[in-house]
Amino acid sequence: MAVLTGLSGNEIYCLALKGLRPGDLVIGNSVFSLGFLGSLGAGWKGMVGGEIEQLTSIIHEGRTESYRRMVHEATERGGVGIAGVTSELRHFHGNTEFISVASTLHGKEGPAEKLGFTSSADGQELYCQMDAGFAPRKSVFGNVAYSVGAPGGIVGAVKSLGRGEIKEFSDAFNLTRHLALKRISTEAAAAGANAVVGIETNIMCFEGAHEMMMIGTASHHPGLPPECREHPVTSDLTCEEMWNLVNLGYLPLKLLLATAVYSLGVVGGLKAMFSSFTRGENKELTTLVYDAREHAIGMLKKEADAIGADDVVGIKTHISEQGNLLEFMAIGTAVKRFPGVRTETPSLPAQAIMKDKETWIS
User: Fold this and answer.
1) Which residues make Cβ contacts (< 8 Å) with residue 54, sequence separation at least 6?
2) Which residue, among 148, 166, 153, has the nearest Cα to 264 in the 3D structure?
3) CA-to-CA distance for 268 and 264, rounded, in angstroms?
4) Are 118 and 138 in contact (CB under 8 A)?
5) What is the model's pLDDT at position 315?
6) Residue 258: CB partners within 8 Å, gap ≥ 6?
7) Mutual angle of helices 167-190 and 150-159, in 10-degree steps
8) How far apart are CA 334 and CA 234, in angstroms?
9) Which of 30, 109, 164, 191 is least enclosed by beta carbons within 10 angstroms?
């Protein structure tokens, strides 16, 4: 019978180098309603601010249920693994559908009695992970639903009268961002992994709040120290980047996040407004953005030094508006050199880094 897979030709080629062949596309879904009581609870928590536990719980439950059904379908097909696990949500008729999609993988020996692993990595990424010494265990995710809240808005309004960082908001945003990271790490430890690699982070709107969701592959690397079994390392490096670093003898230690919330202040805001009518540099905004970005990056350096990292690589900075405030977030992966760490092959095949062209253009 014909195999219907979501894997591309490049993915199939790379996986074949690791003794894996494509199987059928598998799907799991679950439709949830927040419910009247849940809506009331979420609405009240949204007024208070911080994590909205009702939303976090129902989103987590919906994603888990759709994932479970997808795994069951792959098991029935005799797969040894699953690649390219996605976790999406769609809204319709007042309900939310959670849907997980992936492609089954088979070994050379025929159908397996038990599914060996699941991975959020696609075929090319999975090759890079495996060749870098990371044995996949399970596709894992961590999420947090949160709201700034009405009182937070009041505090922000008062604090924003002055120029500079609003620490109450910085602390609140740092807390929610790290909750998602802590939860994906905890799920990886429960799966017997000592690392979560290839983490992708997405922030989306949900029921009037925001959800921050991290998804990655819980894996095991023999070169990591024993304490990583309880506290797995985390990395948002692309799998190709990570392969390059492992080839040089480095392993990831931790995904670092730092958030700083700043206000230009009333006086600064007026100066910025008037200066916008004239041509030239807006010095008020220039200095604010510079100070905030440097503060966020400085927080990364402090945390990296505390865990004994050699470097922080792949640093990215993001700026978003939160009402009359600006949130600055810096994110990067701390790495450390370990003796005897190397990739299985000296170089990546071209198929592992080639990007597929779009053939359907609407």
Assistant:
1) 34, 38, 41, 42, 45
2) 166
3) 5
4) yes
5) 93
6) 174, 296, 297, 299, 300, 303, 329, 330, 331
7) 140
8) 9
9) 109
Give me 237's structure tokens.
Answer: 């490096």
Report the pLDDT value the prediction gives residue 349, as an integer from 0 to 100.
96
* Cα gap 253→154, rounded to integer Å: 39
Coil/strand/helix, residue 240? helix
Q: How far apart are CA 98 and CA 176, in angstroms?
A: 22
As to burial, measured by CB atoms within 10 angstroms (0-12 exposed, 13-18 middle, 19+ buried), residue 115 is buried
Nearest CA among 355, 356, 354, 338 for reference residue 132: 338
Q: How far apart are CA 172 and CA 170, in angstroms?
A: 6
263 close to 163: Cβ distance less than 8 angstroms: yes
The helices-and-strands tally (H runs, E runs) of the chain is: 9, 13
Q: Please enumerate in sequence order all residues whose Cβ is within 8 A of that of 245, keeping only pairs 6 or more positions apart, or say none.
A: 237, 251, 252, 313, 335
Tell me how far apart the alpha carbons of residues 229 and 135 are, in angstroms, rounded to a whole number: 14
Residues above pLDDT 70, as percent of the chain: 86
Taken as a whole, the chain contains a residue count of 362
pLDDT > 50? residue 266: no
Determine the average pLDDT of the residues in 180-200.
97
**Cα–Cα distance for residue pair 275/264, rounded to 1 Å:** 14
Q: Which residues, at least 6 apart from 361, have a Cβ–Cβ distance to it below 8 Å?
A: none
* Residues 6 and 101 sit within 8 Å (Cβ to Cβ): yes
62 CB-side CA count, 13 A: 22
Q: What is the mean pLDDT of the chain?
A: 87
CA 183/CA 142 separation, integer angstroms = 5
10, 246, 352 from 243: Cα distances, Å: 17, 5, 11
Tokens 């905004």 found at: 285
Task: Enumerate the domain spans of the chain.
Answer: 9-339
| pLDDT over threshold 90, residue 327 | no
